[in-house]
């Protein structure tokens, strides 16, 4: 048994144990008022996380609780705009976003979460105003082709990819929400002028454009590009499907810059929801051992609840050199998109 398979086996074993424990805990849970949770009204979730990622987890929640969940899938930005348009009349109970910027955009529509939810994740992974919590961690990385490069060939900082020597060698998905979140983090960490200069350098290097992360990683593995800017977990899906021979790997920048910022997928409860008890039960499930081990073993993300076992295929969160960025401040996605248009990265 090779090391990768053995690591996945250990994670799967932990996942099974934690699932049994969580099944008992959640099945016996009651609402905050001490009464039994109502099964008369489905929980309505607006999800910026894709159906392929979270549908199995939602099905587990339905099976464990006996409750029904109706999910409206879409991009985080589109769903945030929908929620703002619907306002107090939204049918949504929960907004499940792929990044903190989407949650911050509708902060005024969210209800404060109770301490027994907030205490499940570290302070850096939750809203300073207690309106949302992270559910899993997603690191920004440089994916690189292993036939063309080694880690020793890669710079310490993502800033160096704006240098002319990288012309024609880079791929990126300029419409992708996670890339926008990273650039928003750049603006917070570096300021507008330095971020604009980096973007101008990347555009001048004529990067190949892809629709999203998956084809960017595929292009790196195929040698279409030498490096790409993506989230860490896409690579591990390719390796799981194609084997260790897949010719790409992740590189975590060594400098404390936004190149390795840890973003979070997160969730909040709509203030106008009349199903808040079930909404909070759903969030507790996502942060339970079952939910956290699902993200760890099935989607290769970083768990945020310290009681969950990390995936052995990933570096420890504390070993990643990351910037000190307040995720609650990553809300000006519109300003980031305007900047991308200004430098010609977006139409």
Kindly describe this structure.
The protein has 347 residues and is an alpha/beta fold. It has two domains: 3-137 and 263-315, 3-Layer(aba) Sandwich (D-Maltodextrin-Binding Protein, domain 2), CATH 3.40.190; 139-261 and 320-342, Periplasmic binding protein-like II (D-Maltodextrin-Binding Protein, domain 2). The protein has twelve helices and nine strands. The chain has helices spanning 3-27, 51-65, 76-86, 100-105, 115-118, 177-190, 192-204, 213-222, 233-242, 276-287, 289-298, 333-342; strands at residues 43-47, 69-73, 94-97, 133-145, 170-172, 208-209, 227-231, 248-251, 262-269. Strands 1, 2, 3, 4, 5, 6, 7, 8 and 9 form a nine-stranded mixed sheet that branches. Helix 2 links the parallel strand 1 and strand 2 (69-73). The chain starts with a helix and ends in a 5-residue tail after the last helix. 47% of the residues are buried. The model is unreliable at 1-38 (pLDDT under 50).
């Amino acid at each position: 048994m090779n090391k990768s398979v053995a690591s996945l086996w250990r994670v799967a074993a932990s996942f099974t144990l934690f699932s049994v424990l969580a099944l008992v805990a959640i099945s016996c849970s009651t609402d905050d008022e001490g009464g039994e949770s109502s099964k008369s009204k489905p929980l309505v979730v607006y999800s910026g996380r894709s159906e392929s990622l979270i549908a199995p987890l939602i099905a587990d929640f339905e099976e464990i609780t006996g409750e029904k969940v109706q999910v409206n899938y879409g991009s985080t930005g589109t769903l945030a705009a929908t929620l703002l348009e619907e306002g107090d009349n939204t049918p949504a109970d929960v907004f499940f976003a792929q990044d903190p910027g989407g949650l911050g955009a509708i902060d005024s529509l969210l209800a404060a979460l109770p301490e027994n939810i907030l205490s499940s994740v570290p302070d850096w992974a939750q809203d300073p105003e207690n309106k949302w919590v992270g559910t899993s961690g997603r690191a920004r990385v440089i994916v690189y082709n292993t036939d063309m490069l080694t880690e020793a060939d890669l710079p310490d900082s993502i800033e160096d990819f704006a240098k002319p020597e990288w012309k024609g060698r880079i791929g990126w998905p300029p419409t992708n929400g996670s890339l926008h979140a990273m650039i928003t983090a750049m603006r917070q960490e570096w300021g507008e002028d330095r971020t604009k200069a980096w973007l101008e350098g990347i555009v001048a290097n004529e990067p190949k454009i892809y629709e999203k992360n998956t084809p960017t990683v595929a292009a790196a593995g195929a040698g279409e590009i030498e490096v790409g800017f993506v989230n860490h977990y896409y690579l591990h899906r390719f390796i799981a499907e194609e084997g260790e021979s897949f010719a790409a790997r992740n590189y975590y920048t060594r400098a404390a810059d936004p190149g390795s910022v840890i973003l979070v997928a997160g969730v909040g409860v709509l203030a106008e929801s009349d199903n808040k008890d079930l909404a909070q039960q759903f969030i507790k499930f996502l942060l339970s051992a079952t939910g956290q081990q699902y993200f760890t073993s099935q989607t290769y993300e970083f768990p945020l609840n310290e009681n969950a076992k990390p995936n052995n295929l990933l570096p420890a969160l504390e070993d990643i050199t990351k910037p000190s960025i307040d995720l609650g401040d990553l809300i000006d996605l519109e300003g980031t998109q305007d900047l991308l248009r200004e430098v010609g990265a977006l139409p």
